[in-house]
Amino acid sequence: MRTRTGRDLLHRWPRNPIITQQDMPYRVNTVFNGTPVKLDDGSYRMVVRVEGQQGYSFLALARSGDGLHFEVEPRPCMQPASDGPFKTWEEYGLEDPRMTCLEGTYFILYTAVSRYGHRIALARTDDFHAFQRIALISEAGNKDGVLFPEKIGGLYARLDRPIGQGIGSVWISYSPDLVNWGRSQCVFGPRPRYWDSYRVGASATPIRTERGWLEIYHGVRMTCAGPIYRAGAVILDLDNPAKVIGRSLPPILSPRTDYERIGDIGNVVFASGAVVEPDGEIRVYYGAADVCICVATARLDDVVALCMRDAET
Ligand code: BMA
After folding, report:
1. Does the predicted TM-score (pTM) go above 0.90?
2. CA-CA distance, 33 to 224, in Å (whole number)?
3. Are 271 and 286 in contact (CB under 8 A)?
4. Residue 124 pLDDT grade (very low, low, confident, very high; cuts 50, 70, 90)
5. Of ligand 1's atoms, which has the minimum distance to the CA of residue 264?
6. 3-state SS assignment for residue 260
């Protein structure tokens, strides 16, 4: 499915976008920022962010046999909680899910939005029918949580994006039980002068490679016309992922097409998950202009090589 469009390392699928508002089985404003997994039977599931016509977001499940053609379930899979301990924190919606298969369970970290700000929340599903909330796992002011697919040093690990002193950097935290988190430290931040000079945030579930954990992240540059969201890549040490081994100097995907340039928020490619295929292709799923879901691919080795090349310059 490789097609060269533009000059980015990632190649867009020529039939992008793969899910739009018109593919939804009910009326919505937009559908974007979907997080995919590939199951053992070779089929795909993607939890997507849907912005309803009321204006707040919720989550829906899409299914696919090939990772390119998706069908969205007739009803949302997670709506803002109407009672219980999550109600206060989801009053303004559920945003930007990231899914990780860990010890046979699918865990979803999502952003719970309330009048008090953003918090990271954790939910799980075993069968993609029932979705159970587990806990709110950050205080307000944090988002972009992604869970590592295995324990590191005997502990669960996650990346997230607190904002301190107005600076949005990627941090790591550890947990013995997925609910209580600590040992937090900063992993990498924005780079002055670069395309990711304003903010960075974790995007995809980290992928184990021989060189380290590959993390696809989003980087933002602020301009006088507003922000530009691009995708980048970084390699983290396998045993100590707080240590950056390599980081791409250029982005691996930038907004160039009409569907990335024009939308509710223009000039946005917002990666939110990736699948590595048996032939070594990485498929990166991303929201475009906050209105639709797209996919772009590369050789996994090429993405890793870019990070390592730039580590050596
Ligand atoms: C981020 C998140 C994403 C969104 C992106 C671009 O802060 O809110 O959901 O896609 O901005 O607008």
Report:
1. yes
2. 25
3. yes
4. very high
5. 12
6. helix
